[in-house]
Design brief:
single chain, alpha+beta, 2 domains, 6-stranded mixed barrel, 13 helices, 13 strands, 53% helix
Length: 418
Protein backbone atom coordinates (compact mmCIF):
# COMPACT_ATOMS: atom_id res chain seq x y z
CA UNK A 1 0.00 0.00 0.00
CA UNK A 2 1.37 3.39 -1.02
CA UNK A 3 0.55 4.93 2.38
CA UNK A 4 3.05 2.56 4.01
CA UNK A 5 5.78 3.27 1.48
CA UNK A 6 8.89 3.97 3.54
CA UNK A 7 10.65 5.85 0.73
CA UNK A 8 7.67 8.17 0.35
CA UNK A 9 7.68 9.18 4.02
CA UNK A 10 11.48 9.50 4.04
CA UNK A 11 11.27 11.92 1.14
CA UNK A 12 8.49 13.92 2.81
CA UNK A 13 10.47 14.21 6.06
CA UNK A 14 13.63 15.19 4.20
CA UNK A 15 11.72 17.89 2.33
CA UNK A 16 10.22 19.34 5.51
CA UNK A 17 13.50 19.18 7.41
CA UNK A 18 15.46 21.14 4.78
CA UNK A 19 14.14 24.37 6.26
CA UNK A 20 13.18 23.55 9.83
CA UNK A 21 12.58 27.14 10.87
CA UNK A 22 10.08 27.72 8.05
CA UNK A 23 8.36 24.43 8.83
CA UNK A 24 8.16 25.45 12.49
CA UNK A 25 6.61 28.83 11.62
CA UNK A 26 4.16 27.09 9.29
CA UNK A 27 3.01 24.84 12.13
CA UNK A 28 2.52 27.73 14.57
CA UNK A 29 -0.65 28.96 12.85
CA UNK A 30 -2.36 25.58 13.10
CA UNK A 31 -0.94 25.01 16.59
CA UNK A 32 -2.42 28.20 18.05
CA UNK A 33 -5.64 27.83 16.05
CA UNK A 34 -6.23 24.38 17.56
CA UNK A 35 -5.50 25.76 21.04
CA UNK A 36 -7.99 28.61 20.55
CA UNK A 37 -10.68 26.23 19.23
CA UNK A 38 -10.34 23.68 22.05
CA UNK A 39 -10.05 26.32 24.78
CA UNK A 40 -13.22 28.01 23.51
CA UNK A 41 -15.06 24.68 23.47
CA UNK A 42 -13.73 23.78 26.91
CA UNK A 43 -14.74 27.14 28.41
CA UNK A 44 -18.21 26.85 26.87
CA UNK A 45 -18.63 23.34 28.29
CA UNK A 46 -17.45 24.68 31.65
CA UNK A 47 -20.17 27.34 31.60
CA UNK A 48 -22.75 24.70 30.66
CA UNK A 49 -21.56 22.54 33.58
CA UNK A 50 -21.93 25.53 35.91
CA UNK A 51 -25.54 25.98 34.81
CA UNK A 52 -26.17 22.26 35.31
CA UNK A 53 -24.73 22.56 38.81
CA UNK A 54 -27.01 25.49 39.57
CA UNK A 55 -30.07 23.48 38.53
CA UNK A 56 -28.87 20.25 40.10
CA UNK A 57 -31.51 18.66 42.31
CA UNK A 58 -34.42 20.46 40.64
CA UNK A 59 -36.39 18.63 37.96
CA UNK A 60 -36.08 20.39 34.63
CA UNK A 61 -39.70 19.53 33.79
CA UNK A 62 -41.16 20.71 37.11
CA UNK A 63 -44.19 22.94 37.47
CA UNK A 64 -45.39 24.77 40.59
CA UNK A 65 -48.96 26.03 40.90
CA UNK A 66 -50.89 27.95 43.57
CA UNK A 67 -54.22 29.72 43.92
CA UNK A 68 -54.69 33.52 44.04
CA UNK A 69 -57.49 36.05 43.54
CA UNK A 70 -59.49 36.50 40.36
CA UNK A 71 -58.94 39.64 38.29
CA UNK A 72 -61.99 39.28 36.03
CA UNK A 73 -65.72 38.99 36.89
CA UNK A 74 -67.26 35.81 35.54
CA UNK A 75 -70.61 33.99 35.76
CA UNK A 76 -71.96 36.36 38.40
CA UNK A 77 -68.80 36.31 40.52
CA UNK A 78 -67.04 39.61 41.18
CA UNK A 79 -63.34 40.16 40.62
CA UNK A 80 -61.12 39.72 43.68
CA UNK A 81 -62.66 36.34 44.58
CA UNK A 82 -60.19 34.17 46.47
CA UNK A 83 -59.57 30.73 44.93
CA UNK A 84 -58.45 27.93 47.21
CA UNK A 85 -57.19 24.59 45.93
CA UNK A 86 -58.19 21.39 47.74
CA UNK A 87 -56.98 17.81 47.91
CA UNK A 88 -59.80 16.99 45.47
CA UNK A 89 -57.93 19.04 42.87
CA UNK A 90 -54.92 16.80 43.30
CA UNK A 91 -57.02 13.72 42.54
CA UNK A 92 -58.73 15.53 39.65
CA UNK A 93 -55.40 16.37 38.01
CA UNK A 94 -54.12 12.82 38.49
CA UNK A 95 -57.16 11.45 36.65
CA UNK A 96 -57.65 14.10 33.98
CA UNK A 97 -54.05 15.00 33.09
CA UNK A 98 -52.15 11.77 32.31
CA UNK A 99 -49.05 13.75 31.32
CA UNK A 100 -48.37 14.49 35.01
CA UNK A 101 -45.72 12.20 36.47
CA UNK A 102 -45.56 13.42 40.08
CA UNK A 103 -47.88 15.74 41.95
CA UNK A 104 -47.22 16.72 45.54
CA UNK A 105 -49.58 19.07 47.43
CA UNK A 106 -48.37 21.34 50.20
CA UNK A 107 -49.85 23.12 53.18
CA UNK A 108 -48.00 26.16 54.53
CA UNK A 109 -48.84 27.37 58.03
CA UNK A 110 -49.55 31.07 58.15
CA UNK A 111 -49.64 31.37 54.36
CA UNK A 112 -46.96 32.06 51.77
CA UNK A 113 -43.82 33.84 52.99
CA UNK A 114 -45.22 34.12 56.52
CA UNK A 115 -42.87 32.76 59.21
CA UNK A 116 -44.21 30.72 62.13
CA UNK A 117 -42.71 30.83 65.60
CA UNK A 118 -40.91 27.58 66.33
CA UNK A 119 -39.73 27.11 69.96
CA UNK A 120 -37.20 25.06 71.85
CA UNK A 121 -35.87 25.70 75.38
CA UNK A 122 -36.68 29.41 75.30
CA UNK A 123 -35.21 29.89 71.84
CA UNK A 124 -37.28 30.68 68.78
CA UNK A 125 -36.91 30.80 65.04
CA UNK A 126 -39.22 32.47 62.55
CA UNK A 127 -39.38 29.54 60.15
CA UNK A 128 -41.61 28.49 57.28
CA UNK A 129 -43.57 25.43 58.39
CA UNK A 130 -44.49 23.24 55.44
CA UNK A 131 -46.77 20.21 55.34
CA UNK A 132 -45.43 18.01 52.55
CA UNK A 133 -45.39 14.55 51.05
CA UNK A 134 -42.07 12.70 50.55
CA UNK A 135 -42.62 13.18 46.79
CA UNK A 136 -41.59 16.82 47.12
CA UNK A 137 -38.02 15.57 47.47
CA UNK A 138 -38.21 14.23 43.91
CA UNK A 139 -39.23 17.64 42.59
CA UNK A 140 -36.76 19.74 44.59
CA UNK A 141 -34.08 17.57 46.17
CA UNK A 142 -33.12 18.36 49.76
CA UNK A 143 -29.48 18.21 50.76
CA UNK A 144 -29.82 16.08 53.90
CA UNK A 145 -26.72 16.42 56.09
CA UNK A 146 -28.00 14.42 59.07
CA UNK A 147 -30.84 11.99 59.59
CA UNK A 148 -33.45 11.50 56.85
CA UNK A 149 -36.29 13.18 55.01
CA UNK A 150 -40.00 12.40 55.40
CA UNK A 151 -41.15 8.96 54.25
CA UNK A 152 -44.45 7.22 53.52
CA UNK A 153 -44.72 5.79 57.04
CA UNK A 154 -44.69 9.31 58.43
CA UNK A 155 -47.59 10.14 56.12
CA UNK A 156 -49.53 6.93 56.76
CA UNK A 157 -49.39 7.20 60.55
CA UNK A 158 -49.45 11.02 60.70
CA UNK A 159 -46.30 11.04 62.79
CA UNK A 160 -45.28 14.18 64.66
CA UNK A 161 -41.83 14.34 63.13
CA UNK A 162 -40.02 17.10 61.27
CA UNK A 163 -37.03 17.91 59.09
CA UNK A 164 -35.42 21.28 59.80
CA UNK A 165 -33.10 23.51 57.82
CA UNK A 166 -29.55 24.41 58.82
CA UNK A 167 -30.53 27.97 59.75
CA UNK A 168 -33.44 26.76 61.87
CA UNK A 169 -31.05 24.33 63.62
CA UNK A 170 -28.58 27.14 64.39
CA UNK A 171 -31.33 29.25 65.92
CA UNK A 172 -32.82 26.47 68.05
CA UNK A 173 -29.77 24.41 69.05
CA UNK A 174 -26.29 25.14 70.33
CA UNK A 175 -23.40 24.59 67.95
CA UNK A 176 -22.55 20.88 67.82
CA UNK A 177 -25.62 19.93 69.87
CA UNK A 178 -27.42 16.76 68.83
CA UNK A 179 -30.77 17.56 67.19
CA UNK A 180 -31.92 14.19 65.87
CA UNK A 181 -34.39 12.64 68.32
CA UNK A 182 -35.01 15.90 70.18
CA UNK A 183 -38.23 17.87 70.04
CA UNK A 184 -39.22 21.34 68.93
CA UNK A 185 -42.60 23.09 69.32
CA UNK A 186 -44.65 24.40 66.42
CA UNK A 187 -47.67 26.41 67.63
CA UNK A 188 -47.49 24.54 70.93
CA UNK A 189 -47.28 21.08 69.35
CA UNK A 190 -44.15 18.99 69.85
CA UNK A 191 -42.40 17.47 66.83
CA UNK A 192 -39.38 15.16 66.91
CA UNK A 193 -36.50 16.15 64.64
CA UNK A 194 -35.62 13.30 62.26
CA UNK A 195 -33.40 15.16 59.79
CA UNK A 196 -31.42 18.32 59.04
CA UNK A 197 -30.91 19.65 55.55
CA UNK A 198 -28.55 22.26 54.19
CA UNK A 199 -29.48 24.84 51.59
CA UNK A 200 -28.44 23.80 48.11
CA UNK A 201 -25.86 25.96 46.37
CA UNK A 202 -28.14 26.02 43.34
CA UNK A 203 -31.79 26.93 42.86
CA UNK A 204 -33.47 26.58 46.23
CA UNK A 205 -37.18 27.27 46.60
CA UNK A 206 -37.58 26.77 50.35
CA UNK A 207 -34.35 28.16 51.82
CA UNK A 208 -32.77 26.60 54.91
CA UNK A 209 -34.96 28.20 57.57
CA UNK A 210 -37.90 25.86 57.06
CA UNK A 211 -39.52 23.03 58.98
CA UNK A 212 -40.99 20.13 56.99
CA UNK A 213 -43.71 18.06 58.63
CA UNK A 214 -45.89 15.26 57.14
CA UNK A 215 -48.83 16.58 55.11
CA UNK A 216 -51.35 14.39 56.95
CA UNK A 217 -50.00 15.45 60.35
CA UNK A 218 -50.21 19.12 59.40
CA UNK A 219 -53.83 18.75 58.25
CA UNK A 220 -54.95 16.82 61.35
CA UNK A 221 -53.02 18.91 63.87
CA UNK A 222 -53.52 22.43 62.57
CA UNK A 223 -56.78 22.08 60.66
CA UNK A 224 -57.54 23.81 57.40
CA UNK A 225 -59.90 21.12 56.14
CA UNK A 226 -58.94 19.78 52.74
CA UNK A 227 -57.37 23.01 51.48
CA UNK A 228 -54.08 22.96 49.61
CA UNK A 229 -51.95 26.05 49.24
CA UNK A 230 -49.49 24.81 46.68
CA UNK A 231 -48.97 21.97 44.20
CA UNK A 232 -45.58 20.84 42.92
CA UNK A 233 -45.59 18.67 39.81
CA UNK A 234 -43.29 17.06 37.29
CA UNK A 235 -44.33 16.31 33.73
CA UNK A 236 -43.23 13.16 31.90
CA UNK A 237 -40.05 13.84 29.88
CA UNK A 238 -41.70 13.11 26.52
CA UNK A 239 -43.96 16.16 26.95
CA UNK A 240 -43.18 19.87 27.03
CA UNK A 241 -44.41 21.72 30.09
CA UNK A 242 -46.13 24.88 28.67
CA UNK A 243 -48.96 23.02 26.84
CA UNK A 244 -49.59 20.85 29.90
CA UNK A 245 -49.57 23.94 32.12
CA UNK A 246 -52.24 25.51 29.90
CA UNK A 247 -54.25 22.28 30.00
CA UNK A 248 -54.12 22.16 33.83
CA UNK A 249 -55.16 25.81 34.17
CA UNK A 250 -58.05 25.33 31.75
CA UNK A 251 -59.32 22.38 33.80
CA UNK A 252 -59.06 24.29 37.10
CA UNK A 253 -60.62 27.44 35.62
CA UNK A 254 -63.63 25.42 34.48
CA UNK A 255 -63.98 23.88 37.93
CA UNK A 256 -63.77 27.19 39.82
CA UNK A 257 -65.69 29.29 37.25
CA UNK A 258 -62.72 31.51 36.45
CA UNK A 259 -62.75 33.69 33.33
CA UNK A 260 -60.70 31.97 30.57
CA UNK A 261 -58.65 35.16 30.09
CA UNK A 262 -57.97 35.66 33.81
CA UNK A 263 -54.18 35.28 34.19
CA UNK A 264 -54.00 36.17 37.90
CA UNK A 265 -56.37 33.70 39.52
CA UNK A 266 -53.93 30.81 39.26
CA UNK A 267 -50.24 31.44 39.79
CA UNK A 268 -47.62 29.14 38.33
CA UNK A 269 -43.91 28.78 37.77
CA UNK A 270 -42.55 26.63 34.95
CA UNK A 271 -38.98 25.58 35.68
CA UNK A 272 -38.54 24.24 32.15
CA UNK A 273 -38.62 27.79 30.74
CA UNK A 274 -35.43 28.61 32.62
CA UNK A 275 -33.82 25.30 31.63
CA UNK A 276 -34.73 25.80 27.98
CA UNK A 277 -33.46 29.39 27.97
CA UNK A 278 -30.16 28.33 29.51
CA UNK A 279 -29.86 25.36 27.12
CA UNK A 280 -30.52 27.62 24.14
CA UNK A 281 -27.93 30.11 25.39
CA UNK A 282 -25.23 27.47 25.89
CA UNK A 283 -26.11 25.93 22.52
CA UNK A 284 -25.65 29.26 20.74
CA UNK A 285 -22.45 29.91 22.70
CA UNK A 286 -21.13 26.47 21.75
CA UNK A 287 -21.95 27.04 18.10
CA UNK A 288 -20.34 30.48 18.15
CA UNK A 289 -17.20 29.09 19.79
CA UNK A 290 -16.97 26.34 17.19
CA UNK A 291 -17.59 28.86 14.38
CA UNK A 292 -14.83 31.20 15.59
CA UNK A 293 -12.46 28.30 16.26
CA UNK A 294 -12.97 26.69 12.85
CA UNK A 295 -12.32 29.96 11.01
CA UNK A 296 -9.21 30.49 13.11
CA UNK A 297 -8.15 26.96 12.17
CA UNK A 298 -8.88 27.68 8.52
CA UNK A 299 -6.67 30.77 8.67
CA UNK A 300 -3.83 28.67 10.07
CA UNK A 301 -4.23 26.02 7.36
CA UNK A 302 -4.30 28.67 4.62
CA UNK A 303 -0.92 29.79 5.93
CA UNK A 304 0.28 26.20 5.44
CA UNK A 305 -0.95 26.31 1.84
CA UNK A 306 0.87 29.58 1.18
CA UNK A 307 4.13 28.19 2.52
CA UNK A 308 3.74 25.04 0.43
CA UNK A 309 3.16 27.19 -2.66
CA UNK A 310 6.50 28.85 -1.99
CA UNK A 311 8.09 25.45 -1.42
CA UNK A 312 6.69 24.12 -4.69
CA UNK A 313 8.14 27.10 -6.56
CA UNK A 314 11.52 26.44 -4.98
CA UNK A 315 11.29 22.76 -5.94
CA UNK A 316 10.28 23.33 -9.54
CA UNK A 317 13.49 21.76 -10.95
CA UNK A 318 13.25 18.81 -8.56
CA UNK A 319 9.63 18.19 -9.58
CA UNK A 320 10.63 18.43 -13.26
CA UNK A 321 13.34 15.80 -12.79
CA UNK A 322 10.91 13.47 -11.01
CA UNK A 323 8.37 13.92 -13.79
CA UNK A 324 11.07 13.28 -16.43
CA UNK A 325 12.03 10.06 -14.61
CA UNK A 326 8.46 8.80 -14.82
CA UNK A 327 6.70 10.18 -11.72
CA UNK A 328 3.01 10.60 -12.56
CA UNK A 329 1.07 13.77 -11.64
CA UNK A 330 -0.84 11.66 -9.11
CA UNK A 331 2.38 10.68 -7.29
CA UNK A 332 3.61 14.28 -7.15
CA UNK A 333 0.23 15.55 -5.98
CA UNK A 334 0.01 12.82 -3.32
CA UNK A 335 3.37 13.77 -1.79
CA UNK A 336 2.50 17.47 -1.47
CA UNK A 337 -0.93 16.73 0.02
CA UNK A 338 0.69 14.38 2.54
CA UNK A 339 3.15 17.13 3.47
CA UNK A 340 0.20 19.42 4.21
CA UNK A 341 -1.55 16.73 6.24
CA UNK A 342 1.61 15.90 8.22
CA UNK A 343 2.24 19.54 9.14
CA UNK A 344 -1.36 20.27 10.17
CA UNK A 345 -1.96 17.00 12.04
CA UNK A 346 1.29 17.22 14.00
CA UNK A 347 0.62 20.87 14.87
CA UNK A 348 -2.99 20.02 15.76
CA UNK A 349 -1.93 17.22 18.11
CA UNK A 350 0.54 19.55 19.84
CA UNK A 351 -2.28 22.11 20.22
CA UNK A 352 -4.54 19.39 21.62
CA UNK A 353 -1.91 18.41 24.19
CA UNK A 354 -1.26 21.95 25.36
CA UNK A 355 -4.94 22.97 25.47
CA UNK A 356 -5.75 19.84 27.51
CA UNK A 357 -3.00 20.74 29.98
CA UNK A 358 -4.23 24.36 30.23
CA UNK A 359 -7.84 23.30 30.88
CA UNK A 360 -6.75 20.67 33.42
CA UNK A 361 -4.66 23.26 35.25
CA UNK A 362 -7.52 25.77 35.22
CA UNK A 363 -9.89 23.14 36.67
CA UNK A 364 -7.46 22.46 39.53
CA UNK A 365 -7.18 26.19 40.28
CA UNK A 366 -10.92 26.86 40.09
CA UNK A 367 -11.97 23.75 42.01
CA UNK A 368 -11.80 25.28 45.47
CA UNK A 369 -12.92 28.77 44.45
CA UNK A 370 -16.43 30.15 44.85
CA UNK A 371 -18.46 32.23 42.37
CA UNK A 372 -16.43 30.95 39.42
CA UNK A 373 -18.72 30.73 36.35
CA UNK A 374 -16.84 27.74 34.93
CA UNK A 375 -16.99 24.17 36.26
CA UNK A 376 -14.93 21.28 34.88
CA UNK A 377 -13.95 23.08 31.68
CA UNK A 378 -13.01 20.35 29.22
CA UNK A 379 -13.94 19.64 25.63
CA UNK A 380 -15.71 16.37 24.88
CA UNK A 381 -14.27 13.51 22.84
CA UNK A 382 -16.85 14.01 20.03
CA UNK A 383 -15.89 17.69 19.85
CA UNK A 384 -12.21 16.80 19.52
CA UNK A 385 -12.90 14.11 16.92
CA UNK A 386 -15.00 16.51 14.84
CA UNK A 387 -12.31 19.19 15.12
CA UNK A 388 -9.59 16.72 14.17
CA UNK A 389 -11.63 15.41 11.24
CA UNK A 390 -12.21 18.95 9.95
CA UNK A 391 -8.50 19.64 10.41
CA UNK A 392 -7.58 16.70 8.17
CA UNK A 393 -10.25 17.51 5.57
CA UNK A 394 -9.20 21.16 5.39
CA UNK A 395 -5.54 20.20 5.14
CA UNK A 396 -6.32 17.91 2.19
CA UNK A 397 -8.35 20.59 0.41
CA UNK A 398 -5.79 23.31 1.05
CA UNK A 399 -2.92 20.96 0.14
CA UNK A 400 -4.50 20.40 -3.28
CA UNK A 401 -3.80 24.03 -4.23
CA UNK A 402 0.03 23.76 -4.25
CA UNK A 403 -0.26 20.15 -5.47
CA UNK A 404 -2.21 21.22 -8.55
CA UNK A 405 0.25 24.05 -9.12
CA UNK A 406 3.11 21.52 -9.06
CA UNK A 407 1.62 19.13 -11.64
CA UNK A 408 0.82 21.97 -14.04
CA UNK A 409 4.51 22.58 -14.59
CA UNK A 410 5.76 20.80 -17.72
CA UNK A 411 8.89 18.68 -17.15
CA UNK A 412 10.83 20.38 -19.97
CA UNK A 413 10.02 23.83 -18.59
CA UNK A 414 10.96 22.75 -15.05
CA UNK A 415 14.33 21.44 -16.24
CA UNK A 416 15.09 24.81 -17.82
CA UNK A 417 14.32 26.57 -14.49
CA UNK A 418 17.37 28.25 -12.98
Amino acid sequence: MWLLDRDLWTEILNTLSKNMFRTFLTMLGVFFAMIILLLLLGATNGMSNSFDKIFEGTSSNSLFMWSQQTSEPYKGFERGRRIRFTTDDVELLKKQIPEIDIISPRIQLGGYNTPVSVYRNGRTSGSSVLGDYPLIDEVTKKNIVEGRFLNNKDIEYSKKVCVIGQEAYEQLFDKGEEAIGHSIRVNGVFFTVIGIYKKNENIDIDGDNAVFIPFTTCKKTFGGGNQVGFMAMTIYPEYTVPPIEAKIKKLLKNKYSIHPDDERAIGSFDMSRIFNSVSAFTGVLNGFSFFVGIFTLLAGIIAVSNILLITVKERTKEIGIRRALGATPRVVKRQIVLEAILITVFAGLLGFTLSTAILAGANVIFEGMENVPITNAIFSIPQFLISFFLLVVLSVLIGLIPANRAVKVKPIDALREE
